[in-house]
Write a structure and sequence with these properties.
Blueprint (H helix, E strand, L loop, with lengths): L4 H6 L7 E4 L3 E5 L9 E5 L11 H22 L3 E5 L15 E6 L18 H11 L2
Antiparallel strand pairs: 1-2, 2-3, 3-5, 4-5
The structure holds adenosine monophosphate and zinc ion.
The site of zinc ion (ZN) has 6 residues, from α1.
Length: 136
């Protein structure tokens, strides 16, 4: 895709701090990290977001995420890692080329991934679960 910065980075047209590369993916250090060692896994093919991705790409991605997360932990001795992925502007997606975040975390590090919790009325959760299941 023309003018997609992550296409250019993933395919090596723009240099990046690369931690991993194979035929389908490149993983880079985020330019504005939530913590040092915050990695983004980018497919080389342009895919807008999770719902538009081929199952084959997604199946290949998670073992790579596991491997890189292990390497982040070994390198930084962090206490945990958030793996997250934003779909759509409302969900915080700012680059519209699929990417998976891996964020090293430390006890009381002050990094916030905030949401206010909501609650269900009686029976509402079961009803909603059923509706979502119907749309699988
Ligand atoms: P998201 O908000 O989930 O779309 O995440 C986009 C991420 O891409 C943000 O964390 C940005 O800091 C990061 N980012 C944007 N441009 C670049 C770039 N040129 N190189 C590395 N990371 C980038
Ligand atoms: Zn792209």
């Amino acid at each position: 895709m023309e003018n997609c910065i992550f296409c250019k980075i993933a395919n090596g047209e723009i240099p990046s701090a690369t931690v991993y590369e194979d035929a389908n993916f490149r993983a880079i250090l985020d330019i504005a990290p939530a913590a040092k060692g915050h990695v983004l896994l980018l497919p080389k093919a342009h895919i807008k977001n999770l719902t538009e991705a081929d199952d084959a790409v997604l199946s290949a991605a998670l073992p790579v995420v596991k491997r890189i997360s292990g390497a982040i932990g070994k390198t930084l001795s962090c206490d945990g890692i958030n793996v997250l992925q934003n779909n759509g502007e409302a969900a915080g997606q700012s680059v519209f080329h699929l990417h998976i975040h891996m964020i090293p975390r430390y006890v009381a590090d002050g990094v916030t991934i905030p949401w206010e919790t909501k609650s269900y009325e009686d029976g509402e959760a079961a009803e909603l679960a059923e509706k979502i299941a119907e749309n699988l």
